[in-house]
Amino acid sequence: MWEAGVKPNLMTYNTVIGGALSSGGLCLVGRVKEAKAVLEEMKEQGLAPDGCTCSILFDGYSRLGDSDALVGFFEETMEKGIQIGDYPCSVLLNGHCNEWKVSVAEGL
Predict the structure, then answer these.
(1) How many structural domains comprise the chain?
(2) Who's near 5: CB < 8 A, 6+ residues apart?
(3) What is the pLDDT of residue 72?
(4) Which residues of the chain have pLDDT under 50?
(5) CA–CA distance, 27 with 17 (Å, rounded to integer)
């Protein structure tokens, strides 16, 4: 894209990070570390992540079964004041429950 003189926007980055179900974005194929790198590139280009961006990454961490990274990203998102809605919260709870960390989920 850059070579063609086209500057990606937030929707472009969200598509690369998560993609539509048919496109196999990074988070959908378990490449969350690479998705985070794309997120950092997006920030360097002056674009702030939105609730959609964060929801995609929440889902990616959940798919990996990495509740610790999920909680870390949740806390980072809250500190930055990004409005995330209900879906990431349910992913967070579900992630803990899937790892049999029910007492942690109840504490949230």
Answers:
(1) 1
(2) none
(3) 83
(4) 21-22, 105
(5) 6
- pLDDT at res. 31: 76
Cα separation, 62 vs 67, in Å, equals 7
**Tokens 């942690």 identify what position?**
104
For 12-34, write each residue's pLDDT tens digit: 888 888 865 445 666 666 677 88
**CA gap 51, 40 in Å, rounded:** 16
CATH of the domain at 85: 1.25.40.10
Instruction: Take residue 59 and report the two structure tokens written for it.
Output: 């889902």
**What are the phi and psi torsion angles at 21 (to 5°)?**
-55, -35
Domain that includes residue 90, residue range: 10-107
Within a domain: 5 = no
